[in-house]
Design brief:
Elements lengths: L2 H19 L13 H28 L4 H34 L7 H22 L6 H26 L19 H41 L1
């Protein structure tokens, strides 16, 4: 089955499971249902940024005729990652308001995701500033590699070093998921659906980029 068909099936299924099938959490109640969207979008953002870093490493190492397309792919996945980071920030703020009575609480997790967001926004500023520069691809690639290296610091390390209002992570120190079975199934289904959605969007953007490159090459050939 093609990816887009799976996405069309799984996304409505996730909506049904998250609101009607999975039980609400004992303490947070129905507010806990946002976990089925907050965690998957954050997960996709991390995947997207890792893909951007890997593509950039290949660009630096190989530097061949495919580099231009790889630059486009790195740009595309970073853009998707940025959008999903914003979604993670927004859903996290909604969760914070429902749980703590305020959208912004200067919580380490909120601060770290904003810093991560700014790091990747800076990439687009850098990419735009280097337009027309022959070294644009390499400089942008080095930046994405560095961003990928520091990303775990803001996603996994800093939020765990400082005291946080944020609920315990899904997988805790005892390496167990403190969720009911139906909640686990719903969460994993949602993560799978959003991952496929990322792949689907990424493939579409890459195909568009490939067409743009061909048009550009033909114009230069004239």
């Amino acid at each position: 089955m093609k990816i887009h068909r799976l996405v069309y099936i799984l996304m409505p299924l996730v909506i049904y499971m998250s609101f009607l099938w999975a039980p609400s959490a004992a303490i947070l109640g129905d507010a806990s249902r946002i976990i089925y969207y907050h965690v998957p979008v954050a997960w996709v953002a991390v995947i997207a940024f890792i893909v951007a870093g890997v593509e950039s490493i290949i660009i630096i190492i190989k530097n061949d005729e495919q580099s231009l397309m790889r630059e486009e792919r790195a740009y595309n996945t970073t853009l998707i990652g940025l959008v999903f980071t914003i979604l993670a920030l927004v859903t996290g703020a909604i969760w914070a308001n429902l749980s703590w009575g305020s959208y912004w609480n200067w919580d380490p997790r909120q601060i770290s995701i904003v810093i991560l967001l700014l790091i990747y926004i800076a990439y687009f500023s850098l990419n735009s500033a280097l337009e027309g520069n022959e070294s644009k691809g390499k400089i942008s690639s080095v930046y994405l590699i560095l961003a990928m290296v520091v990303m775990p610091l803001f996603v996994f390390i800093i939020p765990r070093v400082y005291d946080s209002l944020h609920p315990d992570t899904i997988i805790n120190a005892d390496k167990k998921m403190h969720l009911e079975e139906a909640m686990k199934i719903t969460l994993f289904t949602s993560m799978g659906a959003f991952t496929l959605l990322y792949i689907y969007i990424y493939n579409i953007m890459n195909r568009i980029s490939a067409v743009k490159i061909k048009i550009r090459e033909k114009r230069h050939a004239l």
